[in-house]
Design brief:
Helix content: 40-55%
Largest sheet: 7 strands, mixed
Number of helices: 26
Strand content: 15-25%
Distance between the termini: 65 Å
Strand order of the largest sheet: 7-6-8-9-11-10-15
Shape: globular
Structural class: alpha/beta
Length: 633
């Protein structure tokens, strides 16, 4: 895409400057923002399709409402790129998702225009309702808007917020950005319901004809609004869900028609109480490659703006496969052998590669939408019914279903395999997506097994092991990105539960690793050997139960041991090892490497591994320091 000369983009650094434009200039400004996003993301990747779909809405919102006094809560947060550009961050937009740069999501500490921090889905209505209720208590007058879209309405929390807001009668505007997509196509009955609203030709033809011809007769439009419920019910021949929840429903409105958006938003400012504006947008709008394949262009990586060609990854074709793809192919192998295996994912079939099984075995795979808690309890029900579910959820999103794992799976000793994709440091998506808490939040639960493969072959072994009856809740955590073994498709075998691997014997100190960081540890051990330091390396494999035989060996043999994990230190596997040594009275000092007591920021995984000292260099540095300390004594 040839860089176009801009007339508005560099004149507008904040919404106050935007409001100086004439209404007829807003569409041209929107086109400049869209071009800017496309150019920037072509070389600095991020969430493209969803951001392109809300450009007109973003401009209209900041034009009509007095932000930052008025509050806009975004949901999902990856829709907020135009919002960031418009609110004083255009000159820093190139730092997005980079270490020390802008976050890819709204962050309250980053800007007063970010009314609420959000990195995932379905939170906006509850948060916006809380802000609006606090305004009522304080007697503060301002508008509060929740923008919910990109599949977020499939999450149960959204309905809890709608139900409470309707009962409270609080002033609140919910904008449903309906693009019929999350990362993949939306699923579920709500998708069909929204489609029935938007496809009612009788209703929409009459509404549009009346609405569009009454620009100068606002009082007539208000009368139509007052009788809108009867009109919608009669023409749709069904009740309106949102009206049933005490929301005034308006729409559907074309989310790319700036004139209509500005007009309706101005009208809605004058209506008190809970109200919902249903807008129809196109994911990837304004860039044809993104429109034609919205799933691929949700977050496409680097690309050529003129041709739409994605960055050539052919150099990786002969390298190791991504962990998620190893999972996707392996579950098919297992399901072909075991008819009881079924696959479940909450709106991430392409992200976790369960789509491979969906294509082969559509009757045995389930995309339940952005509904992690439901995914877990649904899996529990499948298990109670005699099947073996493989429930694949990103580590950071599994946090939403913690109670369900305890009460519905572990307590009832049901066989469910939880495959936690994106476990550990995930990188540029930042604090909301880092999968660094799962060992700590699962380790205290009874009747649960927690395992982490060091490589793709081990992932296959663990998946094979987990589907055997009687194991109960079986957690397998593995990282984002590519593995380390080219020939990963090796015969699967059962692993004894709680059994680790002694990878290398040593005499100076022990190094106990869990999961993929064991590869960094192995490199560090090799380099330490070159410097005359003999390190015994153990791949724990399991965070729960621990391999007590190997731990007794370490406690009896060494005065110094190091644990390494791609997870938080507090409550992690290092803590478990420390508890074991203390319980058995061993005089073995444990040094724990992992994520400290903080939320990891955005940056590449390599940068963050180095920052926290558990890349190969950081581990080696620790081994050298401890060895020197030991020899000094």
């Amino acid at each position: 895409m040839t860089k176009k000369k801009t007339h508005y983009l560099h004149r507008i650094d904040n919404p106050a400057a935007l409001r100086e434009l004439r209404p007829e200039e807003l569409s041209a400004y929107s086109r400049e923002i869209r071009d800017f996003i496309i150019r920037e993301l072509s070389c600095n990747p991020g969430h493209l399709g969803s951001s392109l779909g809300v450009v007109e809405l973003t401009v209209a919102l900041h034009y009509v409402f007095d932000t930052p006094h008025d509050k806009i809560v975004w949901d999902v947060g990856h829709q907020a790129y135009a919002h960031k550009i418009l609110t004083g961050r255009r000159d820093r937009f190139h730092t997005k998702r980079k270490l020390g740069g802008l976050s890819g999501f709204p962050v309250m500490s980053e800007s007063p225009y970010d009314a609420f921090g959000v990195g995932y889905a379905s939170t906006s209505i509850s948060a916006a309702l809380g802000i609006a209720a606090s305004d009522e208590i304080k007697g503060e007058k301002r508008q509060v808007v929740a923008v919910i879209g990109d599949g977020s309405l499939t999450g149960g929390l959204a309905y809890e917020g709608l139900n409470n807001a309707g009962a409270m009668h609080t002033d609140l505007l919910v904008i449903l950005n309906d693009n019929r997509m999350a990362i993949d196509k939306n699923v579920g009955a709500m998708k069909e319901y929204l489609l029935s609203i938007t496809s009612s030709k009788r209703y929409n033809k009459l509404k549009n004809k009346i609405w569009d011809n009454l620009d100068k007769a606002k009082w007539i439009r208000r009368q139509i609004q007052k009788t809108g419920d009867a009109l919608k019910t009669g023409l749709l021949q069904q009740s309106n869900l949102f009206e049933a929840l005490n929301f005034r429903y308006f729409g559907p409105v074309n989310g790319h028609n700036m004139k209509s958006l500005v007009r309706v938003l101005r009208d809605l400012k004058e209506i008190r109480g809970p109200k919902l504006l249903h807008i129809i947008t196109e994911k990837g709008h304004g860039y044809s490659p993104a429109v034609e394949n919205p799933s691929l262009w949700h977050a496409p990586g680097k690309f050529n703006t003129d041709t739409g060609e994605l960055e050539d990854h052919s150099d990786r074709q002969n390298g190791p496969m991504r962990y998620q793809d190893v999972f996707g192919h392996t579950i098919i192998e297992l399901a072909e052998q075991n008819p009881k295996i079924v696959g479940i994912t909450p709106a991430m079939p392409s992200g976790c590669s369960l789509y491979l099984m969906m294509e082969r075995m559509p009757q045995r795979t389930f995309d339940v939408g952005i509904a992690e808690a439901h995914a877990v309890t649904f899996s529990a029900g499948l298990s109670a019914g005699g099947l073996h579910p493989f429930c694949n959820i990103y580590s950071s999103f599994m946090q939403r279903a913690y109670d369900n794992v305890i009460h519905d799976v572990a307590l009832q000793k049901l066989d469910v395999t939880f495959c936690l994709d994106r476990a550990g440091i995930v990188g540029e998506d930042g604090a909301t997506h880092q999968g660094v808490f799962d060992i700590a939040y699962f380790r205290s639960i009874p009747n649960i097994i927690i395992a982490a493969p060091m490589n793709e072959v081990e992932l296959r072994h663990l998946m094979f092991t987990s589907q055997q009856p009687g194991h109960g809740a079986f957690v397998i955590r593995y990282p984002r990105g590519r593995g380390v073994v080219k020939e990963w498709r090796q015969p699967m075998k059962s692993i004894p539960i709680g059994r680790g691997r002694l990878l290398k014997t040593g005499s100076d100190l022990a190094l106990l690793s869990l999961g993929n960081v064991g590869n960094f540890a192995a490199e560090a051990v090799s380099k330490a050997q070159e410097q005359g330091i003999s390190v015994e390396h153990i791949d724990l494999r399991f965070a729960k139960p621990l391999d007590e035989e190997l731990l007794h060996r370490v406690g009896q043999k060494f005065r110094q041991a190091v644990t390494v994990e791609n997870d938080v230190i507090a409550g992690g596997v290092g803590s478990a090892v420390l508890e074991f040594m203390n319980t058995h009275g061993y005089n073995c000092r444990i040094t724990m490497l992992g994520v400290p007591d903080e939320f990891p920021e955005h940056g590449t995984p390599e940068q963050l591994h180095h920052k926290y000292g558990f890349d190969a260099d950081g581990i080696l540095e620790t081994l050298i320091a401890l060895s020197a300390l030991d020899r000094a004594h």
